[in-house]
Design goal:
The protein is about 45% helix and about 5% strand. It has about 260 residues and is mainly alpha-helical. It has a domain of about 130 residues: Glutathione S-transferase Yfyf (Class Pi), Chain A, domain 2 (Up-down Bundle). β1, α1 and β2 form a beta-alpha-beta unit. The structure holds glutathione (GSH). The site of glutathione (GSH) has 7 residues, from loops. This is Glutathione S-transferase.
Length: about 260
């Protein structure tokens, strides 16, 4: 039996809905930054408490005819499409929002290059960062794994953080980055927005270590400032649409704020 045919409906003018936890920027922030920079119309369940997320990831949710169920937020609803996994959502949004490179350059492969940069940033500057305060188990409290957290953080700050920031510094020096402070093709792209949030979170979590990184990674910090000073991003960061840092990926514990 062949698979049921799915009707393709136009999504022109259909608003985006971000489905994400309240109270932390979290991975949802990467999605928000694209929508904000592009001035897109969107709603964000962070302003409605945890219930919208809970109902999407709960055991009784089986998805619908077209969409399989979801394990974890963020999720993006756009018309009849509902997708999860941060880099997947970003890859869907970026070309639609004009954040996937110079559209006049006919660089059809740009999205794959950008996705590689994004996945790399999320690997080392987001996913691994979570392991600094949860090195043993996500289901345990930080307080139950403090000793291991310090060991893990020492290694992260000494080895992994400079490795990843050094990689992005190298990307910025490469020919493919083009003119200006951006990672790829001389234009602001969604990869720059992703790196911006990673650096912002890391500055909150490890202010001392990040200060010490500035000298050797000038390009990365210039990119950070360039994104931060974009008018729409500035307005967003000052608005109540921005969620505060607290118990998410980027957490500040004084005892983990080490320089080596
Ligand atoms: N690889 C997924 C990870 C999703 C994820 O871990 N989401 C967090 C919030 S940022 C969550 O609520 N996880 C619940 C869980 O893992 O049980 C992505 O990039 O979206």
């Amino acid at each position: 039996m062949s698979a049921p045919k799915r009707q393709k409906t136009s999504k022109d003018g259909v608003p985006y809905e971000l489905i994400y936890w309240p109270g932390i920027p979290g991975r949802g922030e990467h999605v928000r930054l694209l929508l904000e920079e592009a001035g897109a119309t969107y709603t964000d369940t962070a302003h409605q408490g945890p219930d919208p997320v809970l109902s999407m990831i709960g055991a009784s949710n089986l998805g619908d005819e077209a969409n399989p169920p979801y394990l974890a937020p963020p999720m993006l609803r756009h018309g009849d499409l509902v997708i999860s996994q941060t880099p997947n959502i970003l890859m869907y949004l970026a070309p639609r929002l004009g954040l996937a490179g110079d559209s006049s350059s006919e660089d059809e492969d740009a999205i794959y290059r950008l996705n590689a940069l994004v996945l790399t940033a999320l690997d080392g500057l987001s996913n691994e960062v979570h392991d600094c305060h949860h090195p043993i188990a996500v289901s345990l409290y930080y307080e139950d794994q403090k000793e291991e957290s310090l060991r893990r953080t020492r290694d992260y700050v000494a080895n992994r953080l400079p490795k990843y920031l050094g990689y992005f510094e190298r990307v910025l020096k490469g020919k493919a980055s083009g003119e200006g402070p951006w990672l790829y093709g001389g234009h602001l792209t969604y990869a720059d927005l992703v790196l911006f949030h990673c650096v912002d979170g890391l500055k909150f979590m490890f202010p001392k270590a990040m200060k010490a990184m500035e000298k050797e990674h000038k390009g990365v910090f210039e990119l950070y400032e360039a994104v931060k000073s974009r008018p729409k991003i500035q307005e967003y960061l000052a608005s109540d649409r921005r969620q505060p840092y607290s118990q998410g990926i980027y957490r500040h514990y004084d005892e983990l704020d080490i320089t080596e």
